[in-house]
């Protein structure tokens, strides 16, 4: 049985391989690649003999999956799997497992880092002090008492809502599945967008959510509202959001995800928008989260080998 770790997983090689051996034992042949490649031919070459592939966010398209003739299990070191050709996995009877839950704390931390930075003008404040200026024009806002909207109440959205409650916000939510969560009031999407001061996105990317926050939806928002997106880039129409920011139809945005993985074009409209914080898809990436993720990757594999698979996305 051969496991190919087809790209780095964010944990030092020696630590990662030690973790793999501790969990999997010595019965599996493990091949580790410490570089990223994105072209189809190279990915097929890496995975062509693998029974199991561990992958993070490299796109594995139809040709790659088809070219990995022995593949039986994909252990995806990510929560979302929209970068995997699931239709081909289904055709080839390849099981797909993900790493749900590893980045819950990490993503929520960045959400509030962005919010506090926008509300308290931390980046402009840093600059003005370095330039010899004062606080003039940089008076900020408090979170307490603000209406906080969470779109998507999975584990990350729920944690964000809980933290918002701790800040003293009134928390509202819109989600496909409603839960009985203390301190959260579920409302329709348009109601949330129209009434909330802060809106944080936590939906997966699928046919229903692609372009969910479009020009019409952004037009519903208050001109004092801020939008945070740490979910998936295509959930938001970037051009419409950038225009709303340029026209001061909304007050600010924190964006960690784009239509493609960074690096993105330096002329991307959101890079030119005012009062916008952008980060390079890093919400999930803390030392702690990446180690949690690696453990789940190998746990998924050993559970599958023991015929008791977990975190199943496709079987």
Provide an overview of this structure.
The chain has 315 residues and is α/β, with parallel strands linked by helices. It folds into 2 domains: 2-102 and 287-314, NAD(P)-binding Rossmann-like Domain (Rossmann fold); 104-278, Rossmann fold, CATH 3.40.50.720. It contains 11 helices and 13 strands. It has helices spanning 13-24, 40-47, 62-67, 86-91, 104-119, 122-130, 155-166, 189-195, 215-219, 238-246, 287-305; strands at 2-5, 29-32, 52-55, 73-76, 95-97, 147-151, 170-174, 184-186, 198-201, 226-229, 252-255, 276-278, 312-314. It has a 7-stranded parallel sheet, sandwiched between helices. A 6-stranded mixed sheet has the order 2-1-3-4-5-13. Strand 1, helix 1 and strand 2 (29-32) form a beta-alpha-beta unit. Helix 5 (104-119) crosses helix 7 (155-166). The two termini are 19 Å apart. The mean pLDDT is 96.
Write a brief caption for the model.
By secondary structure, the protein is of the alpha/beta class.
